Amino acid sequence: MNEALKQAKMAFEEGEIPVGAVVVSKNRIIGRGYNQTEKLQDVTAHAEMLAITSAANYLGSKYLAECRMYVTLEPCAMCAGALFWAQMGEVYFAAADSKRGFHQYNSHMLHPKTKVFSGILKEESETLVLDFFRKLRE
Amino acid sequence: MNEALKQAKMAFEEGEIPVGAVVVSKNRIIGRGYNQTEKLQDVTAHAEMLAITSAANYLGSKYLAECRMYVTLEPCAMCAGALFWAQMGEVYFAAADSKRGFHQYNSHMLHPKTKVFSGILKEESETLVLDFFRKLRE
Questions:
Q1: By the CB < 8 Å criterion, does A21 face chain B?
Q2: Could you confirm whether the keyword Isomerase appears in this record (chains A, B) (predicted)?
Q3: Is the Cβ pair B52, A61 closer than 8 Å?
């Protein structure tokens, strides 16, 4: 999750809502991503989406059942949908997103085989997002 | 919708589940996409996602509130999530997807301002998908 947080900090530095994600396979990072929706002017450029595409390219397979994703914020519905299709093995998210997190829509959006964990580096991830919006308002 | 169906037929010819989408702004097609998840080995390469990215690139804006999407199959949760973020003005889908369509998860996944219509070229779009899976089984 430290590596995902590093990705989130890169988003922060580039003026993007600071969310970062990594995909791990056999204890090795095979995909990284941070939110780039402003830079690319593309709503699909969420951290998770970029990390999934990157990991799938690395493996040459669209299925990531043997992988774990670490992401600093609870995935939105779009990203949960992508995690479903990829059949991601495990998803660890740091902070919950009480507004746009997928649990607000349906708790069963991930693949039935996907294991979900939350809370690691929760405070650091939340603080980063709060700092971003505080800075934005100033 | 005829143009979306043309995109779906291109997917069919390339051995992909035949779904196509176009984004229209001011009566002009500004984004096209057909399912390329097999070719790219990337679950995020759904027709709608590619068409959204393409339209946003064309406009230089991630918001597509003034646009309409025509898609041959009801969007899945991932694509509905992307349509939400893009604030797509109108969504027209041909065939319903009783298994993976976003209505199976939550009917309120699109942006509250998005208008949704369905049924245009429903039979042609359904037939194309059924033919694809029939051919696959043979």
A1: no
A2: no
A3: no
In chain A, residues with a C-beta closer than 8 Å to the C-beta of B77 are 77-78, 80-81, 84, 105-106, 109
- The residue that leads in pLDDT, B138 or A46, is A46
Helix (H, G, I), strand (E, B) or coil at A118: strand
The pTM (predicted TM-score) of the whole model is: 0.96
Whole-number pLDDT of residue B98 = 95
Provide the pLDDT confidence category of residue B138 given band limits of 50, 70 and 90: confident
Q: What 3-state DSSP class applies to A68?
A: strand
Asked if the Cβ–Cβ distance from A78 to B77 is below 8 Å, we say: yes
Nearest Cα to Cα of residue B77 among A94, A99, A81:
A81
B23 touching A (Cβ < 8 Å): no
Q: What amino acid occupies position B132?
A: F
Predicted complex ipTM: 0.95
Q: Smallest Cβ distance to B80: which of A60, A77, A85?
A: A77
Which DSSP state fits B44? T
